Each structure stands twice: as structure tokens, then as C-alpha cells.
User: What shape does this take?
Amino acid sequence: SAVISQKPSRDICQRGTSLTIQCQVDSQVTMMFWYRQQPGQSLTLIATANQGSEATYESGFVIDKFPISRPNLTFSTLTVSNMSPEDSSIYLCSVDRPQGTDTQYFGPGTRLTVL
Amino acid sequence: SQQGEEDPQALSIQEGENATMNCSYKTSINNLQWYRQNSGRGLVHLILIRSNEREKHSGRLRVTLDTSKKSSSLLITASRAADTASYFCATGKAAGNKLTFGGGTRVLVKP
Assistant: This one.
């Protein structure tokens, strides 16, 4: 399995501000995914991040609100911009590891509370 | 919209009993994966079953897949208090592709 870390593990932010969440993997991966889990809900995919190309966003999510960077094969960031209380969620990154097995492993998540 | 629906939404059992939860989905899939989540933390991967497989086992876990009914089940045998968690199914439509999650089943195992 992959070792995936996320920073920060949790944060409390004021509305109107932005937060950047980091995801670090212990080995190179082609695809990284960002999910959101609203309180008491299941996970919803925000976007797929491939190294060297623009992220692909799911319906209902836009780049201006959730800009994503993927500078190399082991790292990605998700920014939650101009936050409102509705953005309070757990944000999780995931990767396909080992390559080609379809198994997806998840990071520990970032618990965001917006006041 | 979510691909899968899980039932029951919540399940309460005594330690030592078996727990069964079901997942239904709407479109064709390449694989289906089950995850466990403890108290809003990260997801732990439990088992993956491919569309050409019907049953898989891993320790106390048994997963079945019926592609004709577009459904899967997860059985946890001889449950323990440590099995208390939320369980999610997730479907992948293509190899190496994104996952679509079901609503989850909250399992409480009472000692």
C-alpha cells in the first residue's frame, strides 16, 4: 500500500479566506484524486490531478474555487478559495497503488471548519 | 450523483455476530471496492473485487458481486468492537479511473 500524508490534518478558518491542502505520496504515481466529504455524508470526487496537465474537474466543481497543482509525481495541492461555512468538510486525496491494480489508497484527510 | 446506494444506513449488532451490508449501483463497472472509515478519519481499503469475479475473501471479510443485479455485499464475520466504523462501497468504471462512492453504512458493534 502507499503511504500518503496530508497537511494540515485540520484547520479552522474564517470565511472569505483560502486554505491550501498538501498531499504527499511515498512513491511516484500517475493519477491523484481529490475528494470532499461533507459532514455525515459520503465522498464526492472533486477532481483528478495528473502531473504535467490541468486537473479534470467533476460537475459542480470549478478551478476558480478549487485550484489544484501537481508539480511532480509525488505531490499535489488543493486550495479551497474564498471559503464559506458550506466548505466545512473533510478533504481527502487518493492515489492508485500499486500501479495498474486499480486499488485506491487514501490519505488521512484534512478536516476543515469554516466559521 | 452517487453511483451506489448502500443499505442499511445503520446497523447495530452484538460482538461475535455477523454484519452484512449491501451496495447497489446503476451503471456497468470495472471494479468495486470496499472501505472502512473510523470516526471521520481517512479511508482504509478493505477489498477490491473485479467485474468478472463473484466472490472474494480476506480474513473475516467476504465480498460478493452480482453484476446482473448490479449489487455487492460485504459480510463481516464474528464482529468485534473494533469493527465499529462506517463502511463504504465505491465503484470504478474503468481501470485506474476515479471512484464513485455509495452512501455508506454505519456499523456499531456492542461489546
